[in-house]
Amino acid sequence: MRSESPRVAEDYLRVIELIDVERAGDFLVMAATLMEIKSKMLLPRSDEVADETADPRSELVRQLVEYKKFKRCCRLAGSSGGTAAQPITSTAL
Fold first, then answer.
1. pTM of the model
2. 86 with 80: CB under 8 angstroms?
3. What is the pLDDT, as a whole number, of residue 28?
4. How far is CA 50 from CA 29, 40, 44, 63, in A?
């Protein structure tokens, strides 16, 4: 009688090859972040605490702006056509 473990492992490896694990991980991080923001916005807060804490969406906005800059920088670097490295100034972002 053959053990099921090798077959299960082979099936798992086949599935991992089909799934883009990095994108799935990014999706889970984003979903968790959105759930955390939503829960913070739904929980009742006293006026004192509300004044002291920042908007829970501000960190997400900061990350999205940083991501947009990074994508733009990559696009600018890719459009150089493989020429010598050129500095990218902050005004280009």
1. 0.50
2. yes
3. 92
4. 26, 11, 9, 22
